[in-house]
Amino acid sequence: MIKQMTFNQLRKIKDTLPTGSMQKIADELGISADTVRNYFGAQNFDSGESCGLHLEAGPDGGMVVFDDTKILDVALEMLCFEGLLKL
């Protein structure tokens, strides 16, 4: 499923996650924590990998188009579980 949102929306999700969430997401999905960080805008490709998203310049930080939403899905699930995201 392809999904898109603004980069600022993606960063807000990342900033709302509780401490240690990058490692928890990585452990759940069997990937490195740096790959999860790269998904949320970091660029450490020595330790982490690219992870199924594309950035397009534009307002509000530009658009992020996701080819793979697994990391985003786990992050949103964590936020809902913690009561930090209201749907």
Write the layout of secondary structure elements.
Elements: E1 3-6, H1 7-16, H2 21-29, H3 33-39, E2 53-56, E3 63-66, H4 70-82
Antiparallel strand pairs: 1-3, 2-3
Write up what this structure looks like:
It is built from 4 helices and 3 strands. A hairpin with a 6-residue loop joins strand 2 (53-56) and strand 3. It starts with a strand and ends in a 5-residue tail after the last helix. A 3-stranded antiparallel beta sheet has the order 1-3-2. The longest helix has 13 residues, at 70-82. It has helices at residues 7-16, 21-29, 33-39, 70-82; strands spanning 3-6, 53-56, 63-66. Helix 2 (21-29) crosses helix 3. The protein has 87 residues and is an alpha+beta fold. 45% of the residues lie in helices and 14% in strands. The mean pLDDT is 82. The protein is globular.
**Stretches with pLDDT under 50, minimum 5 residues:** none
Give the C-alpha Rg.
12 Å
Number of strands: 3
**Percent strand:** 5-15%
Give the proportion of residues in helices.
Answer: 40-55%
Q: What characteristics describe this protein?
A:
45% helix, alpha+beta, 4 helices, 87 residues
Describe the structure concisely:
By secondary structure, the chain is an alpha+beta fold. It is built from four helices and three strands; from the N terminus they run βαααββα.
